[in-house]
Amino acid sequence: MARQRAKAPSQRQLRVGEQLRHTLSQILARGDIRDPELADMNVTVTEVRVSPDMKAATAYVLPFADGTPEDLAAALNRAARYFRGQLGREIDLKYTPELRFAPDRSFDEAARVDALLRKPRVRQDLSDDPDAPGGPIDTGENTDSDLPDDPDRGA
């Protein structure tokens, strides 16, 4: 049986997710958390994904300075009920979603792809000149040599 792709989030899911992200960031910035692990930690909430029924949400987080993302997510998951209560007071939704926190891996993945694209062998594959090791990467932009002669340019 073929694996089905997940549907793209609806506009409402995106809007609610962004509202949750913004409100969670405000709650974390206030710093009125009793957990000593979270008290002095600066947290970046990069994204919040909401389930189609709006009853569950996953917040992707990164530590701003020190600490590992896994430890941060574990500490935030221990305090998830507190955050849900705070969200319920600040956001007007029929149901306040159950929160889960997960470490954000998107920056690691972007760095991995960037490092891969910078390898000489890959750069050679992407360059216009097959004999040039690490030649220029085609950015898709037109250069003057790609453009037809324009009589108004004086060429």
Would you kindly provide a written description of the structure presented here, covering whatever features stand out?
- By secondary structure, the protein is α+β, with helices and mostly antiparallel strands.
- The protein has a domain of 94 residues: K homology (KH) domain (GMP Synthetase, Chain A, domain 3, 2-Layer Sandwich), CATH 3.30.300.
- The protein contains six helices and three strands, in the order ααββααβαα.
- The protein has a three-stranded mixed sheet.
- Strand 1 and strand 2 form a beta hairpin.
- The protein is flat.
- The N and C termini lie far apart (62 Å).
- The mean pLDDT is 80.
Please write out the topology.
Blueprint: H1 11-30, H2 36-39, E1 43-50, E2 56-63, H3 69-78, H4 80-90, E3 98-103, H5 106-117, H6 120-126
Parallel strand pairs: 2-3
Antiparallel strand pairs: 1-2
Helix pairs in contact: 1-4
- At the first level of CATH, the class of the domain at 11-104 is Alpha Beta
Structural class: alpha+beta
What portion of residues is helical?
40-55%
Radius of gyration: 23 Å
Unreliable sequence segments = none
Largest sheet: 3 strands, mixed
Give the CATH architecture of the domain at 11-104. Answer: 2-Layer Sandwich
Q: What's the number of helices?
A: 6
Overall geometry: flat
CATH superfamily of the domain at 11-104: K homology (KH) domain
The side-by-side strand order for the widest beta sheet comes to: 1-2-3
Quick check: average pLDDT? 80
What share of the residues does DSSP label as strand, in percent?
5-15%
The number of distinct β-strands equals: 3
Helix and strand sequence: HHEEHHEHH
CATH topology group of the domain at 11-104: GMP Synthetase, Chain A, domain 3
N→C terminal distance: 62 Å
